[in-house]
Automatic annotation (TrEMBL):
It is found in: Membrane. GO terms for cellular component: membrane. Residues 22-40, 51-64 have a biased composition (Basic and acidic residues). Keywords: Amino-acid transport, Membrane, Transmembrane, Transmembrane helix, Transport. This is Amino acid transporter transmembrane domain-containing protein. Residues 1-64 are annotated as: Disordered. One of its GO terms (biological process) is amino acid transport. It comes from Setaria viridis. It comes from the Eukaryota. Residues 1-16 have a biased composition (Low complexity). PANTHER family: OS05G0424000 PROTEIN-RELATED.
Length: 482
């Protein structure tokens, strides 16, 4: 049923109104809000699109109120938000976590294919920003609108597991960068990884207190880009120098045949983790109208120019060190101490900013549901609320990071549990549900193939990641100094 058309004709008869209400409830259009009441969406006439309505100043009804700022950012600012996630300090681990288990052919083809598939899936999701006349500013709202309350709750759980795992990984990464910096100047081992993780979590919390919402990053995105370029350029140049002077490297894939199966599956999960945020609707909510057109510009920016630094440092690191490449590339490179320290501290600072992006949906939920909307973001009571609530959330992240500091395993598990379902399975199936009357049989078959195929990959990747975590947990004790 065409929801907009049904809404437009609902005034013609009472029976059609009853039919429309039944259909709306089936698709989740009347979800309960925070106050326990139900509100019917304000639907646009069926001849208007989201972009056309935006350009004329006619806004579709938002799926829920929000305490955060939306619809204000230019497309290039959103593009830099996406690029900050893609070129976070996680890129320093892709040579070891992707290229080593897959080799030159598998790793190169995998990175390019994952980019193409991710661009396609994210574009599908971007086009679902407005469904049934409602602009959906959260992933869970979009899923709930299409499927109903149960899938709303499941999507909410998947997304926040995804973001929690990513945030935990960022804190581990920041701790590794701090420890690597300390080790350059002292070899006494006094500053262990758990201590560095605690310092990193505290620094991330301080930053979170001062940045009320995602759009407020603005100038910090410029700093993030600068920090990314510093550690990527330094790592690239030092790896190039090491590769030129080093003897022949071993590029064979390590491990026995049985082990390679699991490491290959884990590497595939890392491939999709590299490009995807799992929070595209939340990022898209901040962009100026026309929303879909501007979001597509930001995505093209991310997957073209924005991905080049990732390729450069990943391929150069593997070329220089082969199968001996570590999970944190700056541990491999040789060079002046001050240059390596600059790279490590840049990775640390960029990680603090990047974590805020991936924590923002959790912050938005907490601020909207429990915070006060009065007095502005820097009113005393709002600042205190952020200190208590965000500080508590990041304390839990930091504790988990210190207990299980296995960065590569976290990347694999995050890709398996959340990135596959959210970015590929749900995006394709939601597109099928919304556009089912406009798709040909071949197009429907293509989307179903994506749904089934990526569901299978998600299950396999989750098994492989859990196995890796169990192996590492048996090898290293809790609060290990890796």
């Amino acid at each position: 049923m065409d929801v907009n058309a049904a809404s437009a004709s609902s005034s013609s008869s009472s029976s059609s109104c009853a039919t429309q209400e039944t259909e709306d409830r089936r698709l989740g259009l009347h979800l309960p809000f925070d106050d326990g009441h139900e509100r019917a969406p304000l639907l646009l006439p069926p001849t208007k699109t989201m972009d056309a309505a935006d350009e004329k100043g006619e806004r579709p009804d938002l799926s829920e109120d929000t305490a955060h700022q939306i619809s204000v950012d230019p497309w290039y600012q959103v593009g830099f938000v996406l690029i900050t996630g893609v070129n976070s300090a996680y890129v320093l681990g892709y040579s070891g976590s992707i290229m080593v288990p897959l080799g030159w052919i598998g790793g190169t083809c995998g990175l390019l294919l994952a980019a193409a598939i991710s661009m396609y899936a994210n574009a599908l999701l971007a086009r679902l920003h407005e469904v049934g006349g409602k602009r959906h500013i959260r992933y869970r709202d979009l899923a709930g609108h299409i499927y109903g309350r149960k899938i709303y709750a499941l999507t909410w759980a998947l997304q926040y597991v995804n973001l929690f795992m990513i945030n935990t990984g960022f804190i581990i990464l920041a701790g590794q960068a701090l420890k690597a910096t300390y080790a350059l100047f002292s070899d006494d081992g006094a500053l262990k990884l758990p201590y560095c993780i605690a310092i990193s979590g505290f620094t991330c919390a301080l930053f979170a207190f001062g940045i009320p919402y995602l759009s407020a990053l603005r100038i910090w995105l410029g700093f993030s880009t600068l920090f990314s370029l510093i550690y990527i350029v330094i790592t690239f140049v030092l790896s190039l120098r090491d590769g030129i002077t080093a003897p022949a490297r071993d590029y064979s894939i390590p491990g026995s045949h049985g082990t390679r199966i699991f490491t290959t599956i884990g590497a595939v999960a890392d491939l999709v983790f590299a490009y995807n945020t799992g929070m595209l609707p939340e990022i898209q909510a901040t962009i100026r109208p026309p929303v879909v057109k501007n979001m597509e510009k930001a995505l093209w920016f991310q997957f073209t120019a924005g991905s080049l630094p990732l390729y450069a440092v990943t391929f150069m690191g593997y070329w220089a060190y082969g199968s001996a490449t570590s999970s944190y590339l700056l541990n491999n490179v040789k060079g002046p101490v001050w240059i390596k320290a600059t790279a490590n501290m840049s990775a640390f600072l960029q990680t603090v900013i990047a974590l805020h992006i991936f924590a923002s949906p959790m912050y938005e939920f907490l601020d909207t549901k429990y915070g006060s909307g009065h007095g502005g973001p820097f009113a005393f009571h709002n600042v205190v609320f952020r200190v208590l609530v965000r500080g508590g959330y990041l304390t839990v992240n930091t504790l988990v990071a210190a207990v299980l500091p296995f960065l590569g395993d976290f990347m694999s598990l995050t890709g398996a549990l959340s990135t596959f379902p959210l970015t590929f399975v749900l995006a394709n199936h939601m597109y099928l549900m919304v556009k089912r009357h406009k798709l040909s049989a071949i197009q429907k078959s293509w989307h179903w193939l994506n749904v089934i195929g990526f569901t299978g990959l998600a299950v396999a990747a989750a098994v492989a990641a859990i196995r890796l975590i169990m192996l590492d947990s048996s090898t290293y004790h809790f609060f290990a100094d890796l």
